[in-house]
Amino acid sequence: EVQLVESGGGLIQPGGSLRLCCAASGFTVSSNFMSWVRQAPGKGLEWVSVIYSGGNTYYADSVKGRFTISRDNSKNTLYLQMNSLRAEDTAVYYCARAPPDGLLYWVFDYWGQGTLVTVSS
Amino acid sequence: DIVMTQTPLSSPVTLGQPASISCRSSQSLVHSDGNTYLNWLQQRPGQPPRLLIYKISNRFSGVPDRFSGSGAGTDFTLKISRVEAEDVGVYYCMQATQFPLTFGGGTKVEIK
User: Fold this and answer.
1) Segment A35-45, tens digit of pLDDT
2) What is the DSSP secondary structure assignment for residue A1, as one 8-state letter?
3) Is A85 in a helix, a strand, or coil?
4) Per the count of CB atoms within 10 A, which of A62, A68, B29, B69 is most buried?
């Protein structure tokens, strides 16, 4: 069974750093596209970043240069390192996976429960 | 960036009646590989998003057949043939044809 469990959220002051984790089970993180999507309180969904199975990474302009997506193959875990945090980064952060081939190629089919990041002084 | 526009913002529906949500993209979602990466997600209250429909019209595993997707190019529709109480929530269209990936603003389906 595919499962994604995020952790690492919390309250952080503006300018601070936080690392989010997404522990996967039921599939191999390094063989899939893995993404982070966020949702500000009461708002819609916003794509943040993706890492390809080959290692290429892409970011939304709003986080480029501040956030870094990565993975640890030995732990089957996805990460999001968030630096220089701003109030507008306050959101629930979801990880999601997309298979690298087949009918569901590049379709984000499974999502985690999310972890809340609050940036406030 | 591709802008995804959903209408209506809210859809009050009587149980057992149909509902329809429109999603329009600011440019064609046909990818150079021939696929159209337009997906529909459901977010029930207090829950994470859940994939309903992928590549315009394919129902994801476990999704009831009362949900259907259609469209092409820049105009897409999600239909619920007979709304049930468990369908209450916000529905989002999402394009993955071009970076940055973008979402519609969401349509809230509620029971009258």
Assistant:
1) 999 999 999 99
2) -
3) coil
4) B29
